């Protein structure tokens, strides 16, 4: 099945994992929501806020609104993503976005560094390593054979599916050309 992006571009989504989203033609791996941690804390705050409202404490309404606003802000505005576009992989995590160009990547792999599962990439010889990338710093500290990477365990879906998807696009320039260009 191909989804039309505009009159001249279509993205072939056959064989892509279920966790993948297609937004404006880009293949997007959204971050997983930590519901097991967030929802109990939000519920406890809501209960506390309700008790404050019932007992007449003036700040009660603000306590009730705080978890809702926090969930909206973190779930909609600040939720990190990994996007595949014509130029490469774009990691969007407020306030930074970083582009790793396809032509600079030698290969990808899944590795563990510290307590995290990372989709690591090895850059071509002579390409400088990324700046402001927490996964890259963790990989260097753990002495892994990758120059940079993305936290695969925090993305929706399985790390193996993420690896398989990016490898398909790394190996097939014609498939990358189906993707829209990166946006600012």
Bin the helical content.
25-40%
Using the alpha-carbon principal axes, give the shape: elongated
Oligomerization status of the protein chains: single chain
In total, the number of strands is: 10
- Given the structure, what is the number of helices? 5
Task: Indicate how many domains the architecture comprises.
Answer: 2
Q: pLDDT under 50 segments (min length 5)?
A: 1-9
Largest sheet, spatial ordering of strands? 3-4-5-6-7
* Helix/strand order: EEEEHHEEEEEHEHH
SS class: alpha+beta
Q: Main sheet?
A: 5 strands, antiparallel
| Mean pLDDT level | 82
Beta-strand content estimate: 25-35%
Ends apart, CA distance between termini: 28 Å
Rg: 20 Å
Task: Provide a short characterization of the protein structure.
By secondary structure, the protein is an alpha+beta fold. The protein is 35% helix and 29% strand.
Keywords:
three-stranded antiparallel beta sheet; elongated; 29% strand; 35% helix; disordered N terminus; five-stranded antiparallel beta sheet; alpha+beta; 2 domains; 184 residues; 10 strands
Descriptive account of the structure:
This protein is of the alpha+beta class and 184 residues long. The protein has 2 domains: 2-31 and 80-177; 35-77. 35% of the residues lie in helices and 29% in strands. The chain has helices at 35-55, 60-77, 134-141, 159-171, 173-177, and strands spanning 2-6, 9-12, 21-23, 26-30, 81-84, 88-93, 96-101, 105-113, 116-123, 148-151. It has a 5-stranded antiparallel sheet, with helices on one face. Helix 1 (35-55) packs antiparallel against helix 2 (60-77). Mean pLDDT is 82; it is low at 1-9.
């Amino acid at each position: 099945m191909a989804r039309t992006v505009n009159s001249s571009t279509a993205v072939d989504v056959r064989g892509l994992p279920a966790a993948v989203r297609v937004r404006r033609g880009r293949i997007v791996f959204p971050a997983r929501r930590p519901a097991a941690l967030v929802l109990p804390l939000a519920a406890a705050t809501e209960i506390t806020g309700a008790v404050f409202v019932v007992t007449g404490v003036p700040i009660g309404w603000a306590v009730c609104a705080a978890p809702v606003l926090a969930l909206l802000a973190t779930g909609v505005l600040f939720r990190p993503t990994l996007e595949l576009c014509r130029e490469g992989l774009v990691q969007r995590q407020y306030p930074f976005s970083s582009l790793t160009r396809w032509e600079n990547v030698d290969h990808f792999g899944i590795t563990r560094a510290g307590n995290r599962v990372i989709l690591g990439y090895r850059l071509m010889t002579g390409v400088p390593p990324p700046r402001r990338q927490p996964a890259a710093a963790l990989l260097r500290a753990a002495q892994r054979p990758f120059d940079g990477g993305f936290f695969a365990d925090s993305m929706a879906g399985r790390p193996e599916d993420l690896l398989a998807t990016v490898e398909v696009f790394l190996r097939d320039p014609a498939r990358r050309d189906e993707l829209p260009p990166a946006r600012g």
